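Help!! Second protein's tokens look totally different from the first
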Amino acid sequence: MAVFTPLTDAQVSTFLSRFDAGSLVAVKGVPAGTENSTFFVTTDRQELVLTLFEQGEHEELPFFVELLDYLDEHRLPVPGPLHDHDGIALHSLADKPALLFPRLPGEHPHHPNLAQCRALGDALGHMHKVSQHFPGHRPNPRDLHWLLPMHHQVLAYLSPEDQALMMDEVEIYQGFFDKAPDLPQGALHGDLFRDNTLFDGDRLGGMIDFYNGCTGDLLFDLAIVINDWATEPDGRLDPERYATILAAYQAQRPLNTSERDAWPMMLRMTALRYWLSRLLVVYVDPPAHDLTPHDPDQFRTILKRRLEDGALPLPEVAS
């Protein structure tokens, strides 16, 4: 159960009184998530989501509020946080930072169809187009600058073959990106897996959980999406889902020449990013709560497939 700090009805009711959100009818803990305590809150006027932040850098929470406010103002399907009577969104509840959000419609797509892939590509392209003008700044915490020191922490737990694979890849990325032209920058979701989206049928109800949000290479975000949304269990890219997401994305924000050149390498680097982060959770820094870590081998498989097969061709953009 991903509720690490239980709340009483009285606590939630008092918290709600700060907002123009109605009176509490019911509160229910959400049995999902790995880092924060989440509750579905029903008032006499609306459905809400209450999040208590259990770990992470709390001083970075204002960045996430600003980013969600910005994207909400630009009509992206994101849950802009509720602000209280004084215009403040971030509060403390049970001695934890807390935010209140509207509950967006839909469910996670376990096996996304092409219509859902098209909707996701369109929304991400729109988000990246407007996020290039977002004034906030938070360096990407999981880019190449993180890979370089952190991969050494897991090498002792790997086979000689996997040690060589990881060390060689990191060295290749460093050589490639040190010489590559700068890529377009903007605000990223940072973790836009299928379970961080909600679909009401084929309609994208929302992109959620922006707590890996940051600023950096827009291509990094897109590669994360393809490695999850358009990838089969054996690591192969699904051509239809791949082409559908990328065509819809580029209808909003066409990739430039530098991005197209860097695309195969970015797919590899973001696969290794998740292989490494999951290895760290298993062997080095287990979660504070009793949760089952994600399987690191999933992204080792994806990385090896990207090395064997390369990337599928990028769709061309109509002129």
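Here's the second one for comparison:
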Amino acid sequence: MSAPSAATTSTVSPAAGTGQRVLCAMSGGVDSSVTASLLKEQGYEVIGAMMRFWPDDKRVDTFDTCCSPDAAYEARRVAEQVGVPFYLLDYREQFQRHIVGPFLDEYRRGRTPNPCVNCNTKVKFDELVKKARMLGCRYVATGHYVKRVENAAGEVEFWRGDDPRKDQTYFLWGTPRDALPYILFPVGELEKPRVREIAEERGLLTARKPESQNICFVPGKVQDFVAEYVPQASGAIREISSGERVGDHLGTQFYTLGQKKGLDLYQSHVVRYVVHLDPDTNTVWVGDHADCLWTGLRASAANYLLDLADLPAELEVQVRYRSTPVKARVIRADSDSFELSFAEPQFAVAPGQSAVLYAGPRLLGGGLIDDHTRALPELR
């Protein structure tokens, strides 16, 4: 394994001004609105498009989220302001199959999924790239805060966006490598306040629109949404060191690793954390802080944005979207999975979340975190 080659050229919009056609994903938010506007000014032939995910019976209380009917109306109006055509593309069936179904399945398995990763991997940068080619588009563009960088060999790499508070490379580790040359990120080298300034300068109606913080298909709390589809099933909360029953729960799907609130244990004065979920026996295992520390991880469903032989032996890994990357050593890596050893133990690394690999600012790939294999005590 060798170090990735250094990048020499950073490009927001390659071949700008040539009139090449680009399909711009528009969500009804300020970032994608500015993306469309910048591309049009740079000389691209821009086609605005929004992917319809919501079902016909979508609940009214989710209409203010991204990718909602209200957002589609605003995206269409922005397209009119910018002067580009706009299309609403029906991806309801793909969204249900690739995003919502697996999201619920992961909770049934006692894991904590990140549907935004699946959405970018399976829908936006797979299905949408295919649609772009059907429409004769050279590129797909999005409002992600990611930098498109060309290295010395002319290969496209994804780097962290220049706004550290908004960087979204974490969600793009699953992007097919062969799609990288055909994806543009016009706001990747901008900070969020500047994006809003650009929107204000151009009079875009989304300039002051607040950001959506929720999962687009989940109204309210995730636990309430999951409860609608995954039946409650009471079971035991047990101590990981002894097997002793120390409480009761209504379903493993309502817990995640590292959780310490809302456990309602018999001995409420003892601080305990969720350290393992076992849906097969319907058991929530708890322990102390040390029981929640991981010295490394295994990940499956791996995807790499470089040749596997070039994966560095020492790299950084990020295990949550908002967490700080930590140094790690590659113990093993193949085309489907990898195993890492952390430089320092990490707290509550949740199975189902993403382990995203970096070399400095460069995104190298990632995988889905698997659970530890651990010996459980005999039940008491």
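Reply: Different proteins will give different token patterns, so don't panic. The radius of gyration is 22 Å.
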